Amino acid sequence: MSTTNTELEKLDITQFIDGFLNALKRTWIIVVILTAVFGIFNWFRVRNTYVPVYKAEATVAVYSVSESSGADSKSAEQLGTVFPYILTSGVLKDVIMADMGVTSLPGTIKVTNIEGTNLLTISVSTGNPDTAYKELLSVIKNYPKVAEYVVGSTRMEIVDDSGVPNDSGRTVAVRSNALKGAMMGFVLGMLLTGAYMLMFRTVRSAKDIRNLSNIECLGTLPVYKKKKRKNTASSINIMEHNVQENYLEALRLIRTRVLRRLEENKHKVIMVTSTVPGEGKTTIAANLAISMSGKDKKVILIDCDLRNPSLQEIFKIPEDQPGIVEVLNREVRLSQAIVNYADYGMDLMVLFGSQKRTTASTELLSGETMGTLIEGLKQRFDVIILDTPPSAMLVDAMLVSKYVDEALYVIMCDYAKKSVVVNGIQELSAAGVEIGGFILNGARSSSTGYGYHSYGYNSRYYMSRQDDTAEENKEEDAHVSG
C-alpha cells in the first residue's frame, strides 16, 4: 500500500474518532441513562427472581486399594473421566437415593480431576444446604463402589471440604447480572451515538466545506471560552480587555482577507449571515467591523436581524436606543439613531436594530426606504456591514441580499447538518448573491489546520502561528501597497 493511501486511511480513522467523540458530547447523557436503567433493571430482576442454589464441595484424594501407601493419579483421572457415564447409567443415582432415603436425586453432581494429581473435586448443588452436604458425603462414600467395575478397587479420603454451605451465591449473581445489564445499556448507548453521528453529519473542518462547495475559506476562529459572571453578557467584544490572543490573531487574518477582496472587487456592502441561529454571525460581524475600523476604513455596522436584534448585547447599549426600525419608519432621523465610536479611537458607527422586536421586518427590509438608506451610506462609508438573519431560516436575508455586493457565510464547527448548510449556501447563490467566502467559527485545533487552542501557547501553536503571522503581514503589505 502506498504512503498516500496509508495517510488517507489514518486521516479517515482520525476523522471518524473525532466525529464519534463530538457526537458523544451530545448523547453522553443518553448513554449514562441507558447504562443505569439496564443495570438497575437487571439488578431488580435477578434480586426478585433468583432461586437460591447452595453448593457443597470437597476435594478428595484417590488411592488404589492394592497400593494403599501411594497415590493413584491414574485411578483419579479415570474416575473423573467415567463419572458422567456412570451418572447417566442411573446406577450411582439409585445407590445415592437409597443411601439418602429419597425417591429422586435432589441435587446436581459434578466431578472433575485435577490434572496430573490423584485429586478429585466433587461438588453438589441444590436448593437446600443440608441436603447438598448430605448428598456430597453420599457421593464420596458410594462412588468408588459403583466405579469399581471400571477402574478397579479404590478408596477416597477427604482432603478438604466446604462443610454445610451457607452462601447461595445470590449476592454474586445479582451483582454480575447488574453489571451485564449495565454493559448492555452502555453498548446500546454507544450504538445509538454511532447512528446519531451517521445521521446528523455536521461540518467539523474547513475541508468539509471545500468538499461540498468551491467557496473560499476566509479563516477559522478558535473555540472561545469566556468566564461567565453574574449579570454579564457572554458575547465576545474585542474592545474589551483580556480577549484571547489566538482569537484576535485569527480575526486579524480574516479581516485582511476580506479587505483585500473588497478592494480587488471594488465592493463596499457585505452581509454576514449563517445557516441557522447560534453560529456566531452577529459576534463575528461586530468584531470584524471593529477590526476594520482600525485600518483607516470608515465603517458602519447595521443590525438587519429585526426579529432578533443582538448587537445591543455585544456593545452593551441601553434598550431605549433607537435603531434602524425607527429610521425606516421615519420616527427618528438617521443621525439620532447612529452611535459613533470615535471616542474609542475608531472610525466606526453602528445602527442597532430596534427598541423592540418587530413582526414587520419583511415590509421594512424590502421597502424603498431601505434601498435609499443603503445608497446614501455608500457615499459616506468605505465599508458597510449588514448583520442579517440566518439564510436557511428566514426570507429576511434574501431581501437584504439585493443591497449587498457579497456575503460572508459563518459556519459553526460541529453545529448544523451538512445538508442544511449546503441548502443555505445554494439559496443565497440562487438569489444572485456573490459569496465572498466562509468563516469557520468555534474550530478546534484538529479542525482548523492553524493550530489554534482554547487557551495559552504551546510549541505546535507557536510554530503554526508563526506561519499565519507571516501570511497576514504579507497580505496586509499587499493590501496597503495596492
The separation of the N and C termini measures: 48 Å
Number of helices: 17
User: Tell me about the biggest sheet?
Assistant: 8 strands, mixed
Order of SSEs: HEEHHEEHEHHEHEHEHHHEEHHEHEHEHH
CATH fold node name of the largest domain: Rossmann fold
Low-confidence region ranges: 1-11, 229-233, 446-482
Helical residues, percent = 40-55%
Helix and strand content put the structural class at alpha/beta
What Rg do the Cα atoms give? 39 Å
Number of domains: 3
The number of strands is 13
Name of the CATH class of the largest domain: Alpha Beta
Which architecture name of the largest domain does CATH use? 3-Layer(aba) Sandwich
Shape verdict: rod-shaped
- Mean pLDDT comes to 81
For the biggest β-sheet, the strand order reads 6-13-12-7-11-8-10-9
Report the CATH superfamily of the largest domain.
P-loop containing nucleotide triphosphate hydrolases
Estimate the strand proportion. Answer: 15-25%
How would you explain this protein's 3D organization?
With 482 residues, the protein is of the alpha/beta class. The protein has 3 domains: 3-50 and 170-199, no CATH class; 54-161, Alpha-Beta Plaits (2-Layer Sandwich), CATH 3.30.70.1130; 206-481, Rossmann fold (3-Layer(aba) Sandwich). The protein is built from 17 helices and 13 strands. The strands form 2 sheets. Strands 6-13-12-7-11-8-10-9 form an 8-stranded mixed β-sheet, sandwiched between helices. Strands 1, 2, 3, 4 and 5 form a 5-stranded antiparallel β-sheet that branches. The radius of gyration is 39 Å and the shape is rod-shaped. The two termini are 48 Å apart.
